[in-house]
From TrEMBL:
Organism taxonomic ancestry: Bacteria, Bacillati, Actinomycetota, Actinomycetes, Micrococcales
Principal subcellular localization: cytoplasm
GO molecular-function terms, A-Z: guanine phosphoribosyltransferase activity; hypoxanthine phosphoribosyltransferase activity; magnesium ion binding; nucleotide binding
Cofactors demanded by this protein: Mg(2+)
UniProt-recorded name of the protein: Hypoxanthine phosphoribosyltransferase
Catalytic activity: GMP + diphosphate = guanine + 5-phospho-alpha-D-ribose 1-diphosphate; IMP + diphosphate = hypoxanthine + 5-phospho-alpha-D-ribose 1-diphosphate
GO terms (BP aspect): GMP salvage; guanine salvage; hypoxanthine metabolic process; IMP salvage; purine ribonucleoside salvage
Pathway: Purine metabolism; IMP biosynthesis via salvage pathway; IMP from hypoxanthine: step 1/1; Purine metabolism; GMP biosynthesis via salvage pathway; GMP from guanine: step 1/1
Similarity annotation: Belongs to the purine/pyrimidine phosphoribosyltransferase family.
Organism: Janibacter cremeus
Record bears the keyword Heme: no
Xref: CDD domains: PRTases_typeI (cd06223)
EC id: 2.4.2.8
Coiled coil: none
Keywords: Cytoplasm, Glycosyltransferase, Magnesium, Metal-binding, Nucleotide-binding, Purine salvage, Transferase
Amino acid sequence: MDTTHIQDDLVEVLITEEQIQTRLAELAAEVWEHYEGKDVLLVGVLKGAVMVMADFMRHLPGSAPMDWMAVSSYGSGTKSSGVVRILKDLDTDITDKHVLIVEDIIDSGLTLSWIRANLDSRSPASVEILTLLRKPEAAKVEIDTRWVGFDIANEFVVGYGLDYDEGYRNLRDVATLAPHVYS
Ligand SMILES: O=P(O)(O)OC[C@H]1O[C@H](OP(=O)(O)OP(=O)(O)O)[C@H](O)[C@@H]1O
Ligand code: HPA
Ligand SMILES: [Mg+2]
C-alpha cells in the first residue's frame, strides 16, 4: 500500500462528505416519490458507484434490491477510451422491471449511453439514471439523466469511489488531483 498521505496529492476539495450526504438524502426522497407503489431495481456500475450506492440506498425509506454491472472504459488513464467492455453482467433478468442506474459520474457520457442502450434492449419496464456527478462541458453524447447530484467543471476528480489508476477511491470527499500525480 502507498503510504503517502492522500491529502498531499490533492489540489482542492470540491464537494465535502457532508454535502454529498445532504444531496443524496434529497435525491433519495425524490426517487422514492417517483417510484411510489412500484418495485425498482437499483443497478450500480462497478467500481466507481460503490460509495454512491451504499449511501444513496440507505437514505431510501423502504426496501429496494440492488444488482451490479462491471464495465470499464477508462483503464488507467484520465480519458475515456469510448470502448466499453462488460466485465460482469447483472445477475437479474430485468424484463418488465423498473431499473434505476446508479452512477458516480457522467463525464463524456460514453459509458452510460452504452450501458443504457444495452439495458434498454432487455425490455425493462423503464430505465432511469441517477448520477452523483456530471461534467456538462465534457459531454460527447446527450444522456437523459433524471437525477444529478452536482454539475462540476471539466476537471479530473477523485474520491468517494472515483479513482485515478485505482487509487483515491477511499477519499471521503470529491477533490481535484494535483497534476504531479499524473504527469
Ligand atoms: O462518461 P464517461 O466519460 O464514459 O465516464 C464515466 C465512467 O468512467 C468511470 O468508470 P471507469 O471506466 O473508470 O471504471 P471504474 O468505475 O471501475 O473506475 C466512471 O465510474 C463512469 O462509469
Ligand atoms: O473525473 C473523473 N475522475 C475519475 N474517474 C472518472 N471517470 C470519468 N471521469 C472521471
Ligand atoms: Mg475509473
